[in-house]
Amino acid sequence: METLPSSEMPTTTKPSPPPFSLPSLFQLNPFWAQLVYFLFLPISGFLLLKCLPAKTAPKPKDLELLFMSVSASTVTGLNAVEMESFSESQLFVFILIMLLGGEVFTSLLGLWFFKIRKNKRRRTNLLQNSVRNLGFIVLGYLIAVHAGGFAFLRVYLAVFPASLRILNRKKLQPSVFAVFAVVSSFANCGLLPTNEGMVVFRESSGMLLAIAAVIAMGNTLYPCFLRLAVMGLKAMGCSPALEYLLRDEKEVGFGVLFPSRRTAMLAATAASMVAAQFVVFCCMEWWSDGMAGMSSFRKAVAALFMAVNSRHSGESVFDISSAAPAVLVLFVVMMYLPAHTTFYPFKEASKCSKSVEEHHQEEKKSKHYCYFKHVMFSQISCLAVFVMIICLTEKQQLSDDPLNFNVFNIIIEVISGYGNVGFSTGYSCSRQLKPVGFCKDSWISFSGRWSAKGKLALMAVMLYGRLKNFTMGAAKAWKLH
């Protein structure tokens, strides 16, 4: 590209945006932009939930509403309030913040603000067109999965009246349930408008399989379906620029558009993990009380549903507190692993398409952030610190109620919050060794019974987990050999 001589350059300069304007926010490092985004989103959700009327009285406390808003916006799914306590207008607030906090939607925002805007300034027309087309593909993918999932659930509820009777008994509109379930599942949040979650639908095998597919398409297998969508559109001859997306993924720089070989290995890895969990769960729980009275086919579908949800969604058809310890340990490992964990025994070709000057500019811009990332604790160390903090905040209950409040249950809750999963052992009044006052069982997470300080600590874990991609290479300054 030719540049104008200095004498022909325009004399007027474009005024810089105000320090707190939206454009200036997204010119920051992506980490700081996402941090601001995931602080603004739950606060906005909390204010809306607080202003809108609740379905039941008394209205949940402010801290509980904030906890629910953080849980929904970080797509964690742990709840401190029974979901049937919320009015229909509050349910739509949850739908909105789950949609805005989901992986696909936030990746679309990142693609627009950090790729398309940047490409307009300094990249070739081919790349600019390719990235713009990719943005439309992601948007179309987002709309198509939601529309298809909603249509399927509405038809399913109309064809199978047993599931519809459950919603009628709970005074839930089928359309509201279908929208909520699809948005929550695609965002991998795990919240549902029923108190029991999917437990009441454990024999609705068709619904479980459909929701499991939506869950996988929204997170773990999102890169696989995205690449398939690009390949399909290219085969249809929709745009010549799509060839560039499939050939130069690193140049495009979209984090979930993987090379073909890694995409295949991701699908194989995810399938292997689900299969391993399915086998272990069936071996340990096939004859358990939770599966009593179910046919073999429904047991298999329920076990598959649990295996899919243990990665990042957290919807459950069983009380996991009654699961075998080996199953719980396996779930903890799966919740800890990032969504796109891949067994990849190949060397990736190192291809650097940026100029030396661009590298120097980026290094200079993010020098302080990189240094902070270099010296900070590793993820597992941070989780250990959070577990210790929560053990201190819940010290009295650990002593008085050891069957509910034990370190293993706290670790499960913390790892679930960090992985933005939502699996929880819950709380049972029958497990109290020293019954104190009136105790009523409720369909809330174990953390819903924690103190205010414990809830605040877990909210920090959820936020940390939602931003964990930025800390993958942390603690490089620590030498353990």
From TrEMBL:
<dbReference type="InterPro" id="IPR003445">
    <property type="entry name" value="Cat_transpt"/>
</dbReference>
<feature type="transmembrane region" description="Helical">
    <location>
        <begin position="93"/>
        <end position="114"/>
    </location>
</feature>
<dbReference type="InterPro" id="IPR051143">
    <property type="entry name" value="TrkH_K-transport"/>
</dbReference>
<dbReference type="GO" id="GO:0030001">
    <property type="term" value="P:metal ion transport"/>
</dbReference>
<keyword id="KW-0812">Transmembrane</keyword>
<feature type="transmembrane region" description="Helical">
    <location>
        <begin position="134"/>
        <end position="156"/>
    </location>
</feature>
<feature type="transmembrane region" description="Helical">
    <location>
        <begin position="264"/>
        <end position="287"/>
    </location>
</feature>
<feature type="transmembrane region" description="Helical">
    <location>
        <begin position="31"/>
        <end position="51"/>
    </location>
</feature>
<protein>
    <submittedName>
        <fullName>Putative cation transporter HKT6</fullName>
    </submittedName>
</protein>
<feature type="transmembrane region" description="Helical">
    <location>
        <begin position="371"/>
        <end position="392"/>
    </location>
</feature>
<feature type="transmembrane region" description="Helical">
    <location>
        <begin position="206"/>
        <end position="230"/>
    </location>
</feature>
<keyword id="KW-1133">Transmembrane helix</keyword>
<feature type="transmembrane region" description="Helical">
    <location>
        <begin position="176"/>
        <end position="194"/>
    </location>
</feature>
<dbReference type="GO" id="GO:0008324">
    <property type="term" value="F:monoatomic cation transmembrane transporter activity"/>
</dbReference>
<dbReference type="GO" id="GO:0005886">
    <property type="term" value="C:plasma membrane"/>
</dbReference>
<keyword id="KW-0813">Transport</keyword>
<keyword id="KW-0472">Membrane</keyword>
<dbReference type="Pfam" id="PF02386">
    <property type="entry name" value="TrkH"/>
</dbReference>
<keyword id="KW-0406">Ion transport</keyword>
<dbReference type="GO" id="GO:0098662">
    <property type="term" value="P:inorganic cation transmembrane transport"/>
</dbReference>
<feature type="transmembrane region" description="Helical">
    <location>
        <begin position="316"/>
        <end position="337"/>
    </location>
</feature>
<feature type="transmembrane region" description="Helical">
    <location>
        <begin position="63"/>
        <end position="81"/>
    </location>
</feature>
<comment type="similarity">
    <text>Belongs to the TrkH potassium transport family. HKT (TC 2.A.38.3) subfamily.</text>
</comment>
